[in-house]
Amino acid sequence: MLDAIRGDLKIKTYVTYIIAFCISLITILCVLIPQLNALYGNNGNIAINYLIRFTIPFQHGFDNFSAIVHLLVNLILLWFLGTYLEKIIGSFRFLFISILSFLLFVILQRLLLSLGQGFTPIIMTYAGVLLVVISQSKYIKTRSIFEDYYRIIVSIEILLWIVLPIIMAFIPIYYDSNSNLLSSIFMGNIYHIIGGLLGILCGLILKSHIKNKLAQHTRKKYITHSNLDKLAVYISFIFPLYLIFVFFYHPV
Questions:
Q1: 124: burial class by Cβ within 10 Å (0-12, 13-18, 19+)?
Q2: Are 192 and 166 in contact (CB under 8 A)?
Q3: How many angstroms separate the CA atoms of 97 and 100, rounded?
Q4: Element (H, E) at 15
Q5: pLDDT band at 68 (very low <50, low <70, confident <90, very high)
Q6: Residues 137-168: pLDDT tens digits?
């Protein structure tokens, strides 16, 4: 079942593609044209214009090398988690969860007056929802735990929930490199953990919907979504349009 959903090319994941395009465009352009760092992301500045603050999830890293590595990791995670989740819950719910996590990350970062940028907290929200997906898959089809994609998702979940927190305690993306160990552990992981918990909450709220979609694919070998999902694709263009607006408005 899980492998079949992964390979079902009829289910489109355009919202994920638009997000991936936006984070790739902004991060790469800022590497190639350093002057753009004044418009996108916080780049080590806590006090920034509120219009620029909403671009923080699209920018990555704290220098050119870390920006590319951070971007590549997030693109891989988007491919494995984002596209898969959008196939199951539909583009509308996927976009809603993305925007909810996006806003929570930006607001929390402002409240905590922290550094850092990147789409990882939103990806952690996807990971949280997918925990509910894989738990439900076992009830729909007990042999799903032997499928390749089940093992892939579980492996990624282990990396994100266990390995990543250790790594983030030593990589100063969200905190100053001179911070003490406790501060580094807290600030390095707070956004990822809250994003993940938000995902679990959203997954539990959508549990019935997730169960129905998994059962539908098991019975009929396909998943159908509503017109709202088609509309969500058009709504998601708000991301690139906002980034273009920031470029021409120059809110510095």
A1: buried
A2: no
A3: 5
A4: helix 14-32
A5: very high
A6: 887 765 776 788 889 999 999 999 999 998 88
Range of the domain at 54: 2-249
Q: The tokens of 24 are what?
A: 């790739």
Task: Give the CA angle between residues 122, 126, 127 to the nearest 5°.
Answer: 110
Residues 99, 236: Cα–Cα separation, whole Å: 9
Rounded Cα distance, 87 and 176, in Å: 38
Chain centre distance of CA 224: 24
Between CA 133 and CA 213 the distance in angstroms is 10
Identify the residue with better confidence: 232 or 183: 232
Percent of the chain residues topping a pLDDT of 90: 62
Place of tokens 């500045």: 45
- Give the CATH number for residue 130: 1.20.1540.10
Cα atoms found within 13 Å of the Cα of residue 191, Cβ hemisphere only: 33
Number of structural domains in the chain: 1
Task: Tell me the pLDDT tens digit for each residue of 2-18.
Answer: 878 888 878 899 999 99
22 touches 243 (CB < 8 A): yes
Cα separation, 240 vs 102, whole angstroms = 15
> End-to-end alpha-carbon separation of the chain, Å?
50
Mean pLDDT, the chain, whole residue set? 90
